[in-house]
Batch of 4 targets.
Target 1
Amino acid sequence: MIRILMGEMGTGKTKAFIEMVNQSVNEEKGNVVCIMKGDRHLFDLKSAVRLTDTTDFYVEDYHALHGFISGMISRDYDITHIFIDSITKIAGKDFAEFDGFLCKLDSLSEKYNVSFTITVSAPVSDASDEVKKYLIS
């Protein structure tokens, strides 16, 4: 399962995202991972969440992010949910590449039974048909 929170800055995505991450720790039976650029949510997230800063690993595009996530899943089969905050800050604003990334992520989700929740800072009107399939309000 993939869910995308999309909206312009100031629309409340971050607050909703943090609530979702913290709630998932109580509900998930496996490990919860939060991928972000930087550590700005370090004190907002419960300590049970595995917080991963992509700047430590030079993740700079969607290809690298896919490899990074694949490596995490191959190392820890107990991961049940991966949250990705501000994906365009991590991998760029090329929405054509983002669409391809979502297809790969969907395959990982199905094969390894991992859910993904992603935030995107952009107007919802910029969402492609591929992105619209996963949008939540």
Target 2
Amino acid sequence: MVTIVIGGAASGKSEFAEALVQTLPGQRVYVATMEPYDGECLARIEKHRRQRAGKGFLTLERYRDLGGLAVPAGANVLLECMSNLLANELYSPQGGGSAAVLGGVERLSQRCAHLTIVTNEVFSGGCDYEGDTLRYLRELGAVNRALAAQADRVVEVVCGCPNVLKGRLP
């Protein structure tokens, strides 16, 4: 089963996704995709570590090549977050672009019992973008659409409130 959890910045999507995965029986694996480039990244990483402390997650850091990640068979995987993974695959010299992201998600979903993917909703800001920023936003939108089409469940989180767009909550 694949669940997509989408929401804007500070919407509560991460907390919702973690709580959802905690309801599942079996091993929990948290796949962290944010590369620690600077102090801001380190602070966000630390916030997420504190947030999931004591919740029984095995944390694996994976910045690119999701398809090559070894996870325990049948585990419940929480991928946090698609936005970072895509940026890493698009802008790193070792990156494989959105095709690597989608292929990696497909391979990962075949190895785990449940895959929950957190991603950002990025088109509600009302701003006009150009260049690489616009390219990234369009790529993320395309990846989100492709993942949602294949997912069993899609949940948008707004102000901490889940809105089920596809499927049902357990």
Target 3
Amino acid sequence: MTEIVVRALTEDEWELLRSLRLNALRESPDAFVASYDDEAEESEEFWRARLSRSRRLVAEADGEAAGLVSIGTLDGVDNGAEFFGLWVAPQWRGRSIAANLVKSGATYAAEQGFDRIAYWVGTDNGRAVAFASSFGFRPTGRRRPMRVQNGDGDEEEIAMVLPLTEDRRGF
């Protein structure tokens, strides 16, 4: 059985963040706003600053870095956090890496005093909606234009929210 460990990256692990992020941009270019070419040229200072702005969790499976998620403050919402940049290496997909990242990220956000965490998903991405729903995330009325355009440009994202306290209010 594979042991999965999720832990926070430290600022001194900027090279691991860089490696994982560039792998994600190379492997899934349509899933991210940034491009591999843009971020591949960034300096150590850029990567260290990125680590200081939000919490980055890495999932390790059998000692190998297998996935990444970021947790930051949700703009425009008091006491709300959000997941972003969730990525799992192809060889580890379907093996609970994403689930462990989401569970650990929600635990971290609750420990930091956030009362909810949001996950933005494409309204046409049934798989992502089902994934988020399986953890208790529920759709909200918050929508925005898709930040990554893969189609006709009319796609939207919806904020799905997971309450982290007894108070089950949304946005």
Target 4
Amino acid sequence: MSGQIEGPVRTFTAGAALGEGIRVTLTSGVLQAAGAEDRGIGTTVAPAYASGDLVGVRLWNAPGTRKMVAGGAVTQFALVYGAASGKVDDVANGNPVGVALE
């Protein structure tokens, strides 16, 4: 039985190097950058420099705003969607993840 964790950030083991603000998913129990169509579990709050590093993930159900890495130029207030390598872009693909505030 797992315990309940109260808080917006949970720590996971990285399966590869990951930058800060990358959308991530769990694959075989480790974090990987989410693909364009993957919803994922949230975004990294700090970089993971190598596979096996522990990294905090701000879960999608956490309140507040978050920084995410853009895969290209994004217009302020545009709806952003999942992009390759855990990034976001304003090119529509059916996987909306937020609104660009900057």
